[in-house]
Design goal:
With 631 residues, this protein is α/β, with parallel strands linked by helices. The chain is 51% helix and 12% strand. InterPro entries: P-loop_NTPase.
Length: 631
């Protein structure tokens, strides 16, 4: 046992209240003093701060306080403080040992939830190395998960509980929780939980479940019969029909595929033919437009030739009159002075003749191009006409192919629908067969559970014996009178002292034996390396040292008197102080501890007397107006 929690302080605060609380040291802590000073309140508050649902019982002195603060040292050595409203609900975890809110805290829920670490129970269990454990909670093997509250009875023992006759293991005293309490004790001693147990269903539950299943199966069968109708075809007829339909569908699939392929081919061919026609038509139109432009160009060439020919003819006429008398004035050639103009006319005549020759060459080239383009346009128009005829033929073929394909498809869909109907009926028959098999299985009687058969719970004999020996060692260390023998009664889930049930002893002896079991559990877990929170709080374990005339528990019984006379108290405290390396103890008592115990423990005394040391857990409240002081 290595992971331990250590109590460091328990404090209480309120809006207008003076701080109050307790501090704790490692090892042995003793809180003793007068009655009604808050000792039991402190024990209840500790239990409450570890997830108890019930707040400490209200006392007048605690009225001004609304929050509790529990300082802890965690297994890794870190120190934190849990704070919780005294009214209940969730927790806040603060870093360090504090009694006021600071930075860096986080919240934890107060209800156990095994699926989350965001609650105090799972947070502490994981810190201590328990993790998620399963516990059988009844004879049928149904399970619960380990909660920190399952461990609380082994950590916090009230004055009423420590003298109770019921087993410390069966702490609730309720039969409904006995199984899980047995298995918590087994888990602590062995480290083995019940995750391997497979739950069983009670016969009554099985019968109810079976009746429900029969009713449901009968409803399903009736529904199938309604779907089949009054006179459905037989299974054999449906199978034959299914075979015939499959053959017909196979043939139709081939015909439909062939018709579809033909239709696809025609559509593709028509698309290509249409594209060719459109291409020829567009090219021919482009050529015809070009020829129109070229014809206009030829007209320009003709006009230019005619103009140049007129220039050429005029020049020739003027040149012909050179060297003759002037037709206007009759001047002889020698008397004329226009020689320069004659040369210019000659040049113009020559240029016009040359330009005419060039234009005629260009016109001849243009005529050749136009003949070529006309031939190409004529060919394209012829191709267009052929393609138009082909399109008409393809449209006719498509008009013929489409109805055939539609007919094949319609017939195929009809056969498919019929096949689906046949398949549905055959599926109904198959479902009916399965339900009839299930119905027959449900008719088999439920086997009776053998008498006394139930999920194994609680400790095995050897482990129980080993635990009893540790209890004996604790009692011997405390100087228990005589030579006691201790055994563990598996039926009672309690120890026997010298063969006598623990519950048959007087209150003081019961209290001491109860305390011995709680201390022995911590020692046993340490010796076996089992997880344990590492602290034990005991309220009035030394009840035998009460004053008979003043105690509400009455006079000592004979066995209590023997125990008191044996001087157990000194050795009790000495033994617990000697266990400081493996655990922490808080002992709450009314009687004074032996002087030697005071030197080995953190001791806090509540005097219950004003002005005589510390009054109690909380400061004494002022006297009320009527002169009476609070009790």
């Amino acid at each position: 046992m290595t992971a331990l929690l250590t109590l460091r302080h328990l404090a209480f605060t309120g809006p207008d209240a003076v701080g109050a609380g307790l501090s704790f040291d490692d090892g042995l802590n003793i809180l003793y003093g007068a009655s009604n000073t808050g000792k039991s309140f402190a024990v209840e508050a500790l239990n409450f701060m570890f997830g108890g649902s019930k707040p400490p019982e209200a006392i007048e002195e605690a009225a001004p306080y609304d929050r509790a603060w529990l300082g802890l040292r965690l297994p890794d050595g870190a120190e934190v403080t849990l704070s919780r409203a005294l009214a209940g609900h969730g927790f806040t975890v603060h870093p360090g040992l504090v009694t006021a809110p600071g930075d860096g805290g986080f919240t934890l829920g107060h209800e156990h939830d095994p699926k989350s670490d965001a609650n105090l129970s799972m947070h502490l269990l994981r810190l201590l190395g328990f993790g998620r454990k399963e516990l059988v909670k009844n004879a049928n093997g149904e399970k619960d998960t380990l909660s920190f509250r399952h461990l609380a009875p082994y950590l916090f023992t009230s004055e009423e509980t420590i003298i109770a006759k019921r087993s410390p293991i069966l702490a609730s005293g309720q039969h409904i929780f006995a199984t899980v309490e047995r298995n918590v004790f087994k888990l602590l001693l062995t480290g083995i939980d019940d995750s391997a147990v497979t739950p069983s269903i009670p016969p009554k539950t099985l019968a109810a479940v079976k009746a429900g299943k029969i009713e449901l199966v009968d409803e399903w069968l009736a529904g199938i019969d309604r779907e089949l109708g009054d006179s459905p075809p037989s299974r054999e007829e449906l199978k034959d029909q299914a075979d015939r339909l499959e053959e017909s569908l196979e043939a139709l699939r081939r015909d439909l595929a062939h018709a579809q392929d033909r239709l696809d081919g025609l559509v593709g061919e028509r698309r290509r033919t249409r594209d060719g026609r459109d291409e020829a038509r567009a090219r021919a139109a482009d050529l015809e437009l070009t020829l129109t432009q070229f014809a206009k160009l030829d007209e320009v060439y003709i006009s230019d030739i005619e103009r140049l020919q007129a220039v050429e003819e005029g020049g020739a006429l003027l040149l012909a009159m050179t060297g003759h008398e002037c037709p206007v004035c009759g001047a002889p050639p020698g008397a004329q002075v226009h020689k320069a103009h004659v040369e210019e006319i000659g040049r113009s005549h020559g240029a016009a003749a040359a330009e005419i020759r060039k234009i005629r060459r260009d016109r001849a080239d243009l005529a050749g191009v136009m003949r070529s383009l006309k031939a190409e346009a004529t060919g394209l128009r012829s191709r267009e006409a052929v393609l138009v005829e082909e399109l008409a033929d393809l449209d006719a073929s498509l008009d013929e192919a489409r109805p055939a394909e539609r007919d094949f498809r319609r017939r195929y869909e009809g056969f498919t629908a019929e096949q689906a109907w046949v398949s549905r009926l055959l599926d109904l028959y198959r479902r009916r067969d399965r339900l009839m098999v299930e119905r027959s299985r449900l008719d088999v009687p439920i086997p009776k559970r053998p008498a006394g058969e139930k999920a194994a719970t609680g400790l095995d004999g050897p482990t129980a014996h080993a635990f009893a020996q540790v209890v004996l060692q604790v009692l011997q260390a405390w100087g228990f009178p005589g030579r006691p023998s201790v055994s563990f009664d598996l039926e009672l889930q309690d120890i026997r002292l010298d063969g006598k049930e623990r519950s048959a002893n007087g209150k003081g002896v019961r209290a001491l034996l109860h305390a011995a079991m709680k201390v022995a559990l911590l020692v046993f877990c340490h010796q076996r390396g089992r997880p344990h929170p590492g602290f034990v709080v005991l309220d009035t374990p030394l009840l035998t040292y009460r004053e008979p005339l003043r105690s509400r528990h009455g006079a000592l019984s004979a066995d209590e008197q023997v125990l008191k006379d044996s001087g157990v108290a000194g050795r009790f405290y000495a033994h617990l102080a000697g266990l400081s390396e493996i655990g922490q103890f808080l002992i709450v008592e009314n009687s004074d501890p032996p002087p030697e115990a005071l030197a080995r423990a953190n001791v806090q005394l509540f005097s219950g007397e004003p002005g005589d040391g510390r009054y109690g857990l909380f400061p004494q409240r002022p006297a009320v107006n009527n002169g009476q002081s609070p009790t």
